[in-house]
Write a structure and sequence with these properties.
The protein is of the alpha+beta class. 27% of the residues lie in helices and 31% in strands. The chain has a six-stranded mixed sheet with strand order 3-6-8-9-10-11. The protein has a five-stranded mixed sheet with strand order 2-1-5-4-7, covered by helices on one side.
Length: 194
């Protein structure tokens, strides 16, 4: 017989109430709550660059861009996440104050701690969003960007080549890798201790 303590199930309402008062962010998956790890300079800079580029691109249109502190609800997975950057073009999301539900693009910035999860279980949850058209993984340790695009027969993977452009067909958006990685210094990241 196991001596492990039983983890209590947390309702969505309890999660949302706690999150409204919490000093740290938590993600919610099917009754379990997970504290979010902090992010380093490279991670934050890349997410900020992408937010600024996308915000300038969609300005004046129906789409809105969110960064880090906005929750994304994946109802089919009974989950709430905090993507690094995401875009929603659904008018209903504009009126939702604490969590959006119909993202068309989700971007996660990879780190040593999050890469496996972002590529695996988290992407599996995100794929349950009917509106999701593109999932982008941006490495914070080297110049590497990958785009997964929804197709009728599954997901198409494309790595952005060095000297190439990040292209998001759903938003008619393109930018050079230099813009994604502006002000990011990998040499400093390698020599710094967390």
């Amino acid at each position: 017989m196991s001596n492990l303590a039983e983890i209590p199930y947390i309702t969505v309402d309890d999660y949302l109430a706690g999150e409204a008062e919490s000093a740290i962010k938590h993600e919610y998956i099917a009754g379990e709550v997970f504290a979010m790890a902090g992010a380093g300079d490279e991670h934050v800079t890349i997410a900020g660059n992408l937010f600024a580029l996308l915000r300038a691109h969609v300005r004046g249109g129906p789409c809105r861009v969110y960064i880090a502190d906005m929750k994304l609800r994946v109802e089919r997975a009974d989950a709430y996440f905090y993507p690094d950057v995401f875009v929603t073009c659904d008018p209903a999301d504009a009126s939702r104050r604490t969590a959006k539900q119909r993202a068309s693009v989700v971007i996660e910035v990879l780190s040593d701690r999050t890469e496996g999860y972002d590529r695996g279980a988290k992407f599996a949850h995100y794929r349950q969003l009917e509106t999701l058209e593109e999932y982008v993984l941006v490495d914070s340790r080297s110049r590497s960007v990958e785009v997964f695009s929804r197709r009728e027969d599954g997901w198409l993977f494309q790595a952005v080549p060095e000297g190439g452009q990040l292209r998001l067909a759903s938003l008619d958006f393109a930018c050079d890798l230099d813009a994604v990685y502006e002000d990011v210094s990998f040499e400093a990241a390698e020599g710094a201790a967390d």
